[in-house]
Amino acid sequence: MEQPRRGRRYTYADYCTWDDDKRWELIDGVAYMMSAPGTRHQRVVGEIHRQLANFLRGKPCDVFASPFDVRLDGADEDDSVVQPDILVVCDKSKIDEKGVRGAPDFMVEVLSPATSRYDRVIKFNLYQRAGVREYWIADPDSGTVGVFLLEGGKYIAAAYSAADTAPVEVLPGCEIDLREVFNEE
Q1: Residue 65 within any structural domain of the chain
Q2: Which H or E element spans position 42?
Q3: Do the beta carbons of residue 4 and residue 24 sit within 8 Å?
Q4: pLDDT (tens digit, 9 = 90+) per residue, 63-81?
Q5: Looking at the domain assignment, is residue 31 inside a domain?
Q6: Is the predicted pLDDT of residue 20 greater than 80, yes or no?
Q7: CATH no. for residue 114?
Q8: Does residue 177 belong to any structural domain of this protein?
Q9: 123: which DSSP letter?
Q10: Containing domain of residue 55, as a range?
Q11: Is residue 55 one of the residues assigned to a domain?
């Protein structure tokens, strides 16, 4: 199996040939190796996922946690494949055995020191361009969540702290209790 090399552009078809023992993302043809998340990161992911899963029980949307491939264009020629920490898809036709084809309705990335710029800039721009309706960036260090809602092709920002309950705008009636998300116990 060929592994990605610096300076080369790749597609989803290439991505499918890489070693499954390593996690990669592909953004605009550039391969990014992903490191394993830490304990704090996983606690935040787990709590947001739990609250979403409880809300979505019996509803038509599905929630997934990483690693789960999102092929933003959905074709073998696609040059962007990401594994967001959490995603929600309400259009079941986008889900297949390999992951999701097309933009999910809602995506969450939890920051770590190594991924802050990547999540705040590179993925932010990619998700906005791909049409992800709502994107959250959760920061365990500051106990905050940046919420970005897609309006007219651009993200409109809001922010919430660890003392807040944050609405998931694309899932009417869904609220995430951030006190539980950022609880250190």
Answers
A1: yes
A2: helix 39-56
A3: yes
A4: 999 999 999 886 656 788 9
A5: no
A6: no
A7: 3.90.1570.10
A8: yes
A9: I
A10: 36-181
A11: yes
